Amino acid sequence: MQNENLIKKELKLPSFKSWDLETKKEAAKIGMTASMAIVVGTSFGMKSKIMKNLHIGAGVALVGFSLWHHMLYQPSKKRSAKMAQEAMVESEVTPPSKPKRTRKTKPKEA
After folding, report:
1. Could you read off the pLDDT of 40-53 as tens digits, one per residue?
2. Cα–Cα distance between 56 and 42 in angstroms, integer?
3. Which partner for 65 in 29, 32, 102, 109 could form a disulfide, CB atoms 3.0-4.6 Å apart?
4. Is 67 in a helix, a strand, or coil?
5. Which tens digits make up the pLDDT trace of 87-109?
6. Is the dihedral of CA 14, 16, 21, 24 positive or negative?
7. Beta-carbon count within 10 A of 28 CB
8. Global model pTM greater than 0.85
9. How much is the pLDDT for 49?
10. How far apart are alpha carbons 61 and 54 in whole angstroms?
11. Cβ atoms of 16 and 24 closer than 8 Å
């Protein structure tokens, strides 16, 4: 009976894919802030083996969160390809415009 209940109840963990872009950016910023705080906090107790390992782990986490944060701010391939295609269509539809004529300024006389 208990096994059947466990089979019916599947644990659904939160999926990062279902988060919108702004939520992912906020999560990356919070992760960077927390790992930076741990790095700074553990830097004062580097004589202890536990603090040293925690310091290294938090540093690795900081690098990971920083890379994730950086990748979230890159333009997506789909969007940039779509914009390039729209630019191609616009350039084909509109004829090239003539350059505007500009007046030459006369030098000021003293």
Report:
1. 999 999 999 999 99
2. 9
3. 32
4. helix
5. 776 666 556 666 677 777 777 77
6. positive
7. 20
8. no
9. 95
10. 10
11. yes
